[in-house]
């Protein structure tokens, strides 16, 4: 039985959402807050870099868990979407208010 391209359609949808949330997160971090001093901006940058390392490690675990499965690529892509959305939800308020 063929899926009729369902997986590809799901991946396209998730990819579009990933682009949207990635763009929103990037814009949020680039904008910052006008009253932030250099030390605070350094902390924000360090926080984001640590989160990126966490995100990448989580992707690797997701990929290893689903390796070889027919839905692995969907699970992996959705992991990206979920983690980025979660990051947006928990951004420090001074950044969120920029």
Automatic annotation (TrEMBL):
UniProt keyword Plastid present? no
**Domain Lysozyme inhibitor LprI-like N-terminal as annotated: residue spans:** 5-88
Q: Does the keyword Hydrolase apply?
A: no
Q: Which InterPro entries match?
A: LprI-like_N
Q: Which terms are listed as keywords in the entry?
A: Plasmid
Domain of life the protein comes from:
Bacteria
List the Pfam families.
Answer: LprI (PF07007)
| Entry protein name | DUF1311 domain-containing protein
According to its UniProt entry, this protein's organism is Devosia neptuniae
């Amino acid at each position: 039985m063929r899926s009729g391209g369902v997986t590809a359609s799901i991946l396209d949808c998730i990819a579009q959402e990933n682009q949207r949330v990635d763009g929103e997160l990037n814009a949020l971090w680039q904008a910052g807050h006008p009253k932030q001093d250099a030390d605070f901006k350094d902390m924000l940058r360090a926080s984001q870099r640590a989160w990126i390392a966490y995100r990448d490690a989580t992707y690797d675990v997701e990929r290893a868990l689903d390796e070889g499965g027919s839905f692995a690529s969907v699970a992996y892509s959705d992991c990206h979407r979920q983690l980025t959305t979660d990051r947006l939800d928990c951004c420090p308020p001074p950044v969120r208010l920029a």
